[in-house]
């Protein structure tokens, strides 16, 4: 037999094998009620994202439309590409049949998304997310079942109201220091706003998490050659290197023949552990000597006790530390990971949109000025925050149109039935459910014909009156805008984000502080008109890409002129 025949036979055999698997999966999916799409390769995998992503633009040009669409779905970040293309969402969702063992369900419908999120024990966090999130120690975010319930019960209260005043006042201070730098040192014109806001988000986590209050400054304090990194520097490298550390071991990354940037990530891994172990020891010493504990996430983790009947020693009441060292490290890491990019980018998109669309800036400034008139202490958390309804509407609209976490993945190991608009849909056993948090916020039947537009007034009960009058908006009305179930940037059900209030407090404090004193304008280039400058800003913002969260590709091109009001 010649070589050609060997290859041809192998190809026929492989093709028959793929076809039989696809046929089998097709039969599993046929009666589910969802639209089906067939694709010859496993999609929605890291490999497909890396390899397939490289050919995405060619694939979209040359493949027939329906196959190109399925290809697109398999490459991470399709939701944002859909938004830019203003593509109408297909409800309630679709199943992609591939040769893979599991079926791929994409959910774009609020009712089904909520049903899946509400049943977190039946639709568990997928194995890959668990591994990724537990890479630095067991954590709330990466656990399932009993281990999750126990951590959630203990950890969620650590992010409750008692930390909010600190979040509020620290955010005010950080925003104030950032603006002083922009105006005094950079003469008001800066391309550092996005990074400056990232710095604020990081510094807040440093204060709330570890009690390390850091004054805002434009750069990051970096350890020199051979010097030990500070804890927060090490942590930042680990967050930036999340995926890399998942793929390669830290000892390999820190080898001297590796590129310097990778060596830093490898080194940061070891230094993070050293620091957190030292910090934990200090907290435990303080606990033993009955010193007053600090109001930080680390202190709360170190001092948490399991005051409940131990399941192994029935009847005995225990008072033992609730978390092992590995769980504390894991939770310190995911606390920072979960709270950093999400909040930082939400603030960056909001400020960018205010600069690019000055009518929204006027709208929130009207509320801020009115608040200044009404409260006796304009820096008070308790009296100011409840009045910032338009600013909260701005945050909601930013999260709806620039959803930081585009989707979450849940596994369905056993067949389930879900309902949307009175119709039942079957989710077969062994289906991976991609629940699109972005997608549910983009339906025109729910959000109206301007679903793809940025319009913060949609969150108000009497939107039309607002722009014309001096009256302050009602509390943003979820019902008026599209219903709670179609707004899921913080996800939903028992696993919904426990940091939601903290993110809101930080966002409102920063926006309120900045726009109490300043306005943002585009820094015009030579010969550029204001209209051209505004469109340029809008284009910089739209040029975004979901990394772990949605980010601008060219943050330094968001060049703003900050003008004192
Ligand atoms: C605008 C800002 C934020 C957004 C959009 C956001 C969004 C999310 C989303 C979508 C999830 C996944 C929930 C799920 O698996 O169903 C999540 C989980 C989580 N978030 Fe946030 N988040 C934000 C801010 C924060 C902050 C400030 C913190 C705390 C510092 C935080 C801590 C967490 C934790 C610990 C989890 C895991 C919860 C669990 O698995 O039970 N997040 N967040």
Automatic annotation (TrEMBL):
Gene3D superfamilies: Cytochrome P450. GO terms for molecular function: heme binding; iron ion binding; monooxygenase activity; oxidoreductase activity, acting on paired donors, with incorporation or reduction of molecular oxygen. Belongs to the cytochrome P450 family. The lineage of its organism: Eukaryota, Fungi, Dikarya, Ascomycota, Pezizomycotina. InterPro entries: Cyt_P450, Cyt_P450_CS, Cyt_P450_E_grp-I, Cyt_P450_sf, Cytochrome_P450_monoxygenase. The chain crosses the membrane at residues 6-26, 38-63. Pfam families: p450. This is Cytochrome p450. PROSITE patterns: CYTOCHROME_P450. Heme binds at residue 497. Keywords: Heme, Iron, Membrane, Metal-binding, Monooxygenase, Oxidoreductase, Transmembrane, Transmembrane helix. Its cofactor is heme. PANTHER family: CYTOCHROME P450 (PTHR24305), CYTOCHROME P450 12A4, MITOCHONDRIAL-RELATED (PTHR24305:SF166).
